[in-house]
């Protein structure tokens, strides 16, 4: 057993020798054929002293085969330039593999903290190394709007910028913001470039436009979108804002226009409409909104949540797209049957029982912004304690589209912080969603230390060491004020 691969080990025959390469080619396989009868996205590679032969189910399978071969070449194969001395060799043997799930994703929240385009492209490279194939790009929230919509320019001229960011996390923090303006957005061409870059790595970019909650940045840009019509700032705090969209025909039409543009930029067959964490305080307090519910024949203002989302799901259908929404939508009344549910609560049990197609995103297991230890210097200890071993132990339910990890960025304000939160836990998650069958954490950790962490080093990833954070990765250096010691 040769232990070089994540997600799976490779069976080799030491007695058969090695295949020798004089340089590092762009394609390692010398013979490539496509066999559509094989398992989708699967591959079989045979390495002999004279040839490297790949049989792939499709183009994605061929891409994953090349990635597996590059892993066998060692960490230097992942550097930006060839610094390897001497010849490259591959051990002779057989690699045969295919993915467990069709949806192997990661959500990247660029709304709370904007990640410049180069950072997104780099993250796609890291996803590709781990054979993840869906980037769920969270583009809008209370704290920022990150996608250019030419018909509504204030969404970015106003909604993409905030006066500062909430420091720390209550009670270990302060309700004041740090006074540092923050913002940024992607132009249409930026996003088309991201989509094309992802496609070359067999990654689909699923955009998210969150409605009718998590919308204060849009309301700041166009106050008439809000219930009160009052001018609001782009939110500087974290959590759930009570400022949600006014359920009017005009607001629905506004978002139809937004989604039409989104669909013109993103070829993904799935577009996320959010639908999570929608406080209905303002709707209940508004006579106009209460009357709106009556006029639509709804039993209460709270049911406007499902009505609003359904209008946009139906619109996406006219554009040939399916909607993805968070599992709160199961509580909001009838939804078009094509709606995919992103299940972040109760391990997806209700979503699966609903009979809908499901992507598992459970907070208990896959939120990588959550703390990695109980050490007092762990940076901004958010949410559940989820160690590397915990993530590796996650067992997704059967009969779903797949699963995805989440990187919410309230406290991940730089690419270095994203690296620290994501890796190597995202490496563990990638193996879970790729490889079926029994798993051993001890065996995984051995492969991780011997082979995969050196790859991450070669890629320049500032991951969390297995023994705990480096001094510069602890508080008070990241981000916000020192912890409250009183």
TrEMBL record:
Named from the GO MF annotations, one term is: beta-N-acetylhexosaminidase activity
Tell me the keywords, alphabetical order.
Glycosidase, Hydrolase
Q: Region labeled Disordered — which residues? A: 467-486
What catalytic activity does the UniProt entry give for this protein? Hydrolysis of terminal non-reducing N-acetyl-D-hexosamine residues in N-acetyl-beta-D-hexosaminides
Q: Which Pfam families match?
A: Glyco_hydro_20, Glyco_hydro_20b
GO CC term, one of those recorded:
membrane
> EC annotation?
3.2.1.52
Ranges for the Glycoside hydrolase family 20 catalytic domain? Answer: 101-436
| Mitochondrion recorded as keyword | no
According to the entry, every stretch annotated as the Beta-hexosaminidase bacterial type N-terminal domain falls at 37-98
**What is a biological process (GO) this protein takes part in?**
carbohydrate metabolic process
The catalytic site is made up of 277 (proton donor)
Q: Does the keyword Hydrolase apply?
A: yes
The entry sums up its family as follows: Belongs to the glycosyl hydrolase 20 family.
Q: What is this protein called?
A: beta-N-acetylhexosaminidase
Species in which this protein is naturally found: Actinophytocola xinjiangensis
């Amino acid at each position: 057993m040769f232990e070089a691969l994540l997600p799976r080990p490779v069976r080799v025959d030491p007695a058969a020798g090695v295949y020798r390469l004089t340089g590092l080619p762009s394609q390692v396989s010398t013979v490539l054929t496509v066999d559509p009868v094989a398992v989708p996205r699967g591959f079989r590679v045979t390495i002999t002293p004279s040839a490297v032969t790949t049989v792939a189910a499709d183009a994605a399978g061929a891409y994953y085969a090349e990635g597996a071969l590059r892993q066998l070449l060692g960490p230097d194969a992942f550097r930006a330039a060839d610094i390897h001395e001497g010849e490259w060799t591959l051990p002779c043997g057989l690699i045969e593999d295919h993915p467990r799930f069709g949806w192997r994703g990661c959500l990247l929240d660029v709304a709370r903290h904007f990640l410049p385009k180069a950072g997104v492209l780099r993250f796609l490279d890291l996803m590709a190394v781990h054979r993840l194939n869906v980037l769920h790009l969270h583009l809008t929230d209370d704290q920022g709007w990150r996608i250019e919509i030419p018909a509504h320019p204030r969404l970015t001229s106003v909604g993409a910028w905030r006066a500062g960011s909430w420091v720390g996390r209550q009670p270990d923090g302060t309700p004041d913001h740090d006074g540092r303006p923050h913002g940024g957005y992607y132009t249409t061409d930026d996003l088309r470039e991201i989509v094309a870059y992802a496609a070359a790595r067999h990654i689909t970019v699923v955009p998210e436009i969150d409605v009718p909650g998590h919308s204060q940045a849009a309301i700041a840009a166009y106050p008439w979108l809000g219930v009160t019509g009052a001018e609001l700032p782009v939110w500087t705090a974290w959590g759930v804002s009570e400022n949600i969209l006014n359920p009017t025909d005009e607001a629905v039409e506004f978002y139809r226009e937004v989604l039409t543009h989104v669909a013109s930029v993103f070829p993904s067959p799935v577009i996320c409409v959010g639908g999570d964490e929608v406080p209905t305080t303002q709707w209940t307090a508004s006579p106009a909104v209460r009357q709106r519910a009556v006029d639509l024949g709804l039993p209460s203002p709270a049911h406007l949540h499902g009505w609003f989302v359904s209008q946009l799901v139906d619109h996406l259908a006219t554009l040939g797209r399916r909607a993805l929404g968070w599992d709160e939508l199961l509580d909001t009344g009838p939804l078009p049957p094509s709606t995919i549910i992103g299940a972040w609560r109760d391990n997806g049990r209700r979503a699966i029982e609903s009979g809908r197609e499901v992507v598992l995103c459970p907070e208990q297991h896959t939120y990588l912004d959550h703390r990695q230890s109980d050490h007092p210097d762990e940076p901004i200890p958010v949410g559940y304690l989820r160690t590397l071993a915990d993530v590796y132990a996650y067992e997704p339910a059967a009969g779903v589209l797949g699963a995805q990890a989440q990187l919410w960025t309230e406290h991940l304000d730089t690419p270095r912080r994203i690296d620290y939160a994501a890796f190597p836990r995202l490496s563990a998650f990638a193996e879970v969603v790729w490889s079926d069958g029994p798993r051993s954490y001890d065996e995984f950790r051995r492969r991780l230390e011997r082979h995969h962490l050196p790859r991450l080093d070669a890629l320049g990833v500032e991951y969390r060491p297995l023994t705990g954070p480096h001094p510069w990765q602890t508080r008070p250096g990241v981000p916000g004020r020192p912890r409250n010691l009183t």
